[in-house]
Write a structure and sequence with these properties.
alpha/beta, 6 helices, 35% helix, 6 strands, 6-stranded parallel beta sheet, 179 residues, Rossmann fold
Length: 179
């Protein structure tokens, strides 16, 4: 699989330079799905941009989502007529946009779509993620038909988690990319 067919879906406010998504993009040549507004994300805008990026690939894509990017992947799968153009998805630390404080800031993202995803999916969750309770992440995995992985106490599985380029996560992605 060509690196240009691996699409990075950052969460709210994007992934900074020390986030494993940014490090993977730089090291492996994966492509970030750039959104026009990272601070005030609108679900419809983000869905349209993901659709555009999936359709622009020359072969089926693999999605690598973090936080709000996971919610985007699920919403896109439930709405797109082009889900056959995604081979698989790695969803890491989904953000629970239905938490009252987050829902208030991201009103267009509720309710979370709980339809089964149209492609093989692995979801990793941390037991001490402040943006999504562990059992809630397990519920998302079950509803989305994803393989669920308990990543222990690793916070939001981001740059603050001390993962650097997160080689263990990249091994999981490579397994998803295999034919």
């Amino acid at each position: 699989m060509k690196p240009s067919n691996v699409l990075i879906l950052p969460g709210w406010e994007n992934s900074g330079p020390q986030h494993w998504q940014s490090l993977w993009e730089k090291r492996h040549g994966y492509v970030r799905v750039e959104q026009h507004d990272w601070s005030k994300p609108l679900r419809g805008d983000w869905l349209a941009r993901l659709e555009e990026m999936v359709l622009s690939r020359d072969e089926p894509a693999v999605l690598v989502a973090h936080s709000l990017g996971c919610i985007l992947a699920a919403a896109w799968s439930a709405r797109s007529m082009n889900t056959h153009r995604v081979k698989a998805a790695l969803l890491v630390a989904p953000g629970d946009v239905e938490q009252p404080d987050i829902r208030e800031q991201l009103p267009s993202w509720s309710p979370i779509d709980l339809s089964a995803l149209a492609f093989p999916t692995v979801l990793l969750a941390s037991r001490n993620d402040t943006f999504c309770e562990f059992e809630r992440a397990r519920l998302f995995a079950y509803a989305w038909g994803a393989q669920f992985m308990d990543y222990g106490d690793c916070g939001h599985i981001n740059a603050d988690s001390g993962l650097a380029s997160w080689p263990e996560g990249h091994v999981l992605l490579q397994d998803l990319m295999k034919d």
